[in-house]
Amino acid sequence: MSEEKIRPKINLTRTLPKPNPYAMAIDNEYKDIAFNEERAPLNKSKWRSDVFKVSDVTPMDVEVGTGAGMHFAHHAAKHKDRCLVGLELKYKPLIQSIKRAKFQGGVHNAICRYHAFNLDLLFAENEINNMYIHFSDPWVTPRKPKNRVASRVLLNEIYQMQRSGSFLEFKTDSREYFLWALEEIKETKYKIEYQTLNLYDQDNVYKQNNFQTSFEKIFVNQGIEINYIKLVK
Ligand SMILES: C[S@@+](CC[C@H](N)C(=O)[O-])C[C@H]1O[C@@H](n2cnc3c(N)ncnc32)[C@H](O)[C@@H]1O
Known about the structure:
Elements: H1 21-26, E1 34-35, H2 47-52, E2 60-64, H3 70-78, E3 83-88, H4 91-103, E4 109-113, E5 131-134, H5 152-161, E6 167-172, H6 175-185, E7 191-196, H7 205-209, H8 214-221, E8 227-232
Parallel strand pairs: 1-4, 2-3, 2-5, 3-4, 5-6
Antiparallel strand pairs: 6-8, 7-8
The structure holds S-adenosylmethionine (SAM).
S-adenosylmethionine (SAM) is lined by residues 64-67, 71, 87-90, 93, 115-116, 134-137, 213, 215-216.
């Protein structure tokens, strides 16, 4: 597989002909904690100092593809001592995520309208701690592995952005995507702490600590096994 970097471009919020209330909210009601695709990269290297106003040693985690923000808000409420930045492409789930985190008592949370492939434009080397990639699009139909987030190219970039001792958690309902990702992971420097083809098979700490979003619940209720891996830097 080629190591070529795909650099996707997304449309600009400010040029939307008819922005919906969610798109408007990014640059108005939530402008200090929600960042459109033009404002988000201005925070690179400055998330702790300028956005969250915390010390450089305060942990800062990242979640890619927050969806409706159930895990995002859960993390925000559970870890008030940590910062959390979410990435989401769609306006409605993006606003739902940041609203939900605030509602559940989150303290240092921000959300960006940004494409996961451009993470390196958002965060500098050694800037982030833990990384969550939950149910990112498997690109199985149509089968376009080049669009998958858990690729060696992106994982190697994330590895550089993470502080040592941090983890990366990846889960998916797609066995095909997961087996493909395992091959990609072999081409990175990550150590595997735990991996399973069925997260709910054994009653261990990974199952007990797992937070199930309604999205995950749909698969579990259908009897689909959840593939899970935790990597450590
Ligand atoms: C299937 S949902 C999963 C939501 C959530 N992580 C969960 O586990 O319930 C995936 C979300 O990722 C977002 N997404 C897809 N591709 C993305 C990308 N390249 N960058 C950022 N977000 C993306 C989608 O808009 C969608 O809301």
